[in-house]
Structure formats: structure tokens, C-alpha cells
Amino acid sequence: MADDPTLHATAILIGAKAVLIRGPSGSGKSSLAWDLIQAASAGTAALPFARLVGDDRIHVDVRAGRLLVRPAQALAGLIEIRGLGIRRLPYEAVAVAGLVVDLAAADAGRLPAREAAETAISGLILPRLAVAAGQDPVPLVLAWLGTGLGVNPAAN
Question: CA separation (Å) from 73 to 57, 76, 97?
């Protein structure tokens, strides 16, 4: 695992697959993860389960045609909650990525181009959701998960 590539990203497990959240510093990666985890813990029907995989730094590894995501060992179970600081949460040690959410994405659009709906990480093509800067990503992620378009992490 020490030699696995590291991404500046946050990952949460939703159902059977992880959502990998990328974006520039301060774009809201940790906030999105926290909001989704809170939505699941509140019993939201659209989101029955969500748990932190890792915040800020994620190790990625390709195994059997799947992208595995793990927290950086020093940060396992830790998440930054803006205004509160670093908090400890239950976490998953490893998960299979099923969706990439790019925050503050320059190519986010009202009707995104087909090529914007995918991204490559470590040679694997994954579904991608591009979110414009200043846009609330929670409703978009919930809509993506609920529509069954692409590879739905909650359903697979």
C-alpha cells in the first residue's frame, strides 16, 4: 500500500461503492462527505448508508479491474469539519470506487458533454459528476445516485 498512488481527495462509501471526491483546496470535499454521511445517518431514503473511507489523501490501487481506495494511514478515521476542526469518525479501510465527483469543475455544465461524464484514474474509466464552483453538490450527488444512470454505487 505504501507504493500506491496518492490523490488529494476524499472518499466515502455509499452502499457497496465509494464516491471519490476531488477538487482544489477549499472546494468543499470534506463538507460534501460530511453532508452525505449526515444525510445517511438521518435515515434519508435516498441514502441508506454512507461511511468515511478517507479525507484529504486517498491511496488508489487497481485490482481485478476495479479501483480500490484507502485512507492515508496517518489520517484514517479523521475528517476536517470546517469551523470545528479535525474529528474522528468510523471508517472503511478499503472500498471500490464507483463514482468520481469533481468539485469546482471548469467543465461543469447545465447539460454536460458526454465526455465530461467519465474520467480515467490509474488507467480505469469511472463515471464522473462535474460540479460547478459555488453549486451545492449534495442534491446533484443524490440525483445521480437515484437516477440509475451509469454505474450507480448504491445499486452495484
Answer: 9, 5, 18
Q: What is the DSSP string of 23-58?
A: -STTSSHHHHHHHHHHHHHTT-TT-S-EEEEESSEE
- Looking at the 3D structure of the chain, how many domains does it have? 1
- 156 is a domain residue: no
Terminal Cα distance for the chain, rounded: 25
Buried b (16+ CB within 10 A) or exposed e, 23-60: beeebbbbbbbbbbbebbeeeeeebeebbbbbbbbbbb
Q: Domain of 132?
A: 6-147
Kindly state whether residue 23 falls inside one of the protein's structural domains.
yes
Residue 50 within a domain: yes
In this structure, are residues 150 and 127 in contact, taking their beta carbons and an 8 Å threshold? yes
Look up residue 128 and give its three cell numbers.
464522473
Using one digit for the tens of pLDDT, what is the confidence trace for 74-115?
999 999 998 899 999 999 999 999 999 999 999 998 887 788
CATH of the domain at 117: 3.40.50.300
Considering the entire predicted model, what is its pTM? 0.90
Displacement of CA 100 from its chain's centroid (Å): 6
Residue 31 CA, chain-centre distance (Å), reads: 11
